[in-house]
Amino acid sequence: MSLAALIALPVPFLRSIGFTGLLIPLVSVVVALTLLPALLLTVGHKLEWPHRRSGSAESRLWRRIGGFVVAHRWSSAVVALAILVVLAIPAFSMRLADPTNSSLASTGGPAGAAIERVESAGLGDGLTKPVEIVTDRPGEVVAALRGDDQVAGLTAPDTWVSGTNHVVDAWTHDDVSTGSGSDAAAHIRSVAEGLGADVGGLAAQNSDFIDAVYGNVWWVVLLIIVVTFILLAIALRSIVLPLKALLLNIFSIAAAYGVMVWIWQDGHGTELLFNQQASGAITVWIPIAVFAFLFGLSMDYEVFLLSRIREAHDEGASTDDATVTGVARTGRLVTSAALILFLAFISLSQVPATDVKILATGLALGIILDATLVRGVLAPALVAALGDVNWWVPTWWPKSKNSSHHDSQSTTPSR
Fold first, then answer.
1. Considering the domain 130-200, what is its CATH architecture?
2. Of 187, 192, 183, 242, which Cα lies nearest the Cα of 390?
């Protein structure tokens, strides 16, 4: 469902990511339901060679962690939530644009050297990202922009003509990926469009992308949330648990955004970690891509944990005991899965492209935050704190045989 958000957006390359990404879980489900059982039946215990695990499937470490969190549920929840909120604060200053020239120049190579020469030429950092103006009245456009304080230069060669259409390039003093440069590019666009011209270029493209994607993404996100809630409510047989899972997902993704902005846009640790300057902005398509991937991955971890807690509760355990059991039984599995993804995204961050580095950073840190702070502390703390409220459903909601038996036998409410 989270990858389906990309398919609904009016941008072809995001749609292609969505379609391709959907194939991964679909193929995985088919393999898990067909090939994997057949392999287990034919090969069996030989797959465990050279190590065969004995004893309980629970993790003693995660049982101790779960017990501590349940015993200190409110303080654990407050501390974990406070950390997520602090990490999310930089996200409110997120600026969507391409990486600045300074960031690209610091990557080295011929392209980086060329950008450095352009910057040192004194023609304005916006030279590499001009505002492209197509007009049948080039003289009026040039006259309107010449002498404008926000315009570093203009060019309109006679060879840039097709029929009655002429191309006029205007560039800004500052890089259009910076706040001042973006404002200047918007001003140039306003003046040119006021004269009936069509305006393109990187700044205009990013502005149109933001309007097209983020201006309409709210209904896509709302649809995902509603469908996810329905699926989780059916699976967990609860109204409260799905609401809590969705709420925690919001905090988790917001924290990932904040850390991504703090590192790349604000430049804290960028040179230490990646040996290059800060990007100065977050590439326009990255937040929606990070949302699509992190929403699905984070919800996976929530389902692992909450479904195990639900099973333990149906078997007769109190909410507190069920929560500790759920953490103990899923801790090793979720941690291993998160580490695999974390290392995969860390490897991806070594790609020279700054855009890919930003994406990999957001995904890697988001996965670690969710698998540890959210799934290991905040989620079980809130389940324990809410107690029997977790299992509330409307009177018309169908109950399973196990949960009905537990409800009829249980006389002592959990803490």
1. 2-Layer Sandwich (3.30)
2. 242
